[in-house]
Amino acid sequence: MEETAKTYASFRQKKNKWAVLGQRFIFVSLGAMIMGVALELFLVPNQILDGGITGISIILSHLAGWKLGPIIFILNLPFFYIGYKQIGKTFALTTIYGISVMSVTTVLLTPVKVFTDDLLLCTVFGGIILGIGVGLVIRWGGCLDGTEALAILLNKKLPFSVGEIILGLNLFIFTCAGFVFSWKYAMYSVITYFIATKVIDVVVQGLDESKSVWIISDQMYDIGEAIMARLGRGVTYLNGEGAYTGDNKKVIFCVITRLEEAKLKSIVEEFDESAFIAVGNISEVRGGRFKKKDIH
């Protein structure tokens, strides 16, 4: 009986693993193709570029007259190894697959006529579509540009954060674009990059962004009961100690959506106007009892 249970558990584990791999394959493929559409049908024909290795590839493709897809793939090759060393095998394999799909997509779409030559429309919609594609790939464990892996490596050798290094590299790339294409196109490219970055955040974190809330109050049980009854959210009581006073404190911890933040604050203020409240963003919540209960 015990052996049968172990066999069944092993079968379920393998089944779940293949299901996750299948989902990753579908969404990474979709994200890579979407990015290819953004590049070939919106940005590149209108001399608008993305940041990172893709931006460098667009500049080289313009100067040399070569197809964009193979250049993106070749320039990203060194970063597959960096990604493997810094993040792991799964990340590296997912990344090389995603960039391969994206490169092939750009080659296939080269003869297709662009949707519009209006620079503003190309900038806005190209940035949105680009952000959706890149966001999907990041959400499913890969990336479509080696800049992040390079920044992680340089971060260990330079006194700058990963974000600062990426920003510096992109400023250099957009400056080069100003000399190669013109400053007008470089400025449109900056707008595209900004839009794409914001859309990536939405895709990776989700529209229903969750928030963690920490509450310190002498009325913690009344506040906790009210949150559960009126918001339908579970709470956890944690033990704390004030560093200055040495007093024992009860800390309420719960997770809510951003739409529930105002109501939660009003509940806390109703019981204790001087309560300490700290609210932070959470990109993902799994397990536990986060599911909202019905409230009447």
Q: Give helix % range.
A: 55-70%
Provide mean pLDDT, rounded.
84
- Work out the radius of gyration: 24 Å
Determine the structural class based on helices, strands and strand pairing. alpha+beta
DSSP helical segment count: 10
Per DSSP E runs of 2 or more residues, the count of β-strands stands at 4
Give a short overview.
This protein has 296 residues and is of the alpha+beta class. Helix content is 64%, strand content 10%.
Describe the structure.
The two termini are 45 Å apart. By secondary structure, the protein is an alpha+beta fold. The longest helix has 42 residues. A 4-stranded antiparallel beta sheet has the order 2-3-1-4, covered by helices on one side. Helix content is 64%, strand content 10%. α9 packs antiparallel against α10. The chain is built from 10 helices and 4 strands, in the order ααααααααβαββαβ. The model has no long low-confidence stretch (mean pLDDT 84).
Key structural traits:
single chain; 296 residues; 10 helices; alpha+beta
Could you give the topology of this structure?
Elements lengths: L1 H42 L8 H13 L3 H19 L2 H21 L9 H21 L7 H9 L6 H19 L2 H23 L4 E7 L3 H11 L5 E6 L6 E10 L3 H11 L4 E7 L14
Antiparallel strand pairs: 1-3, 1-4, 2-3
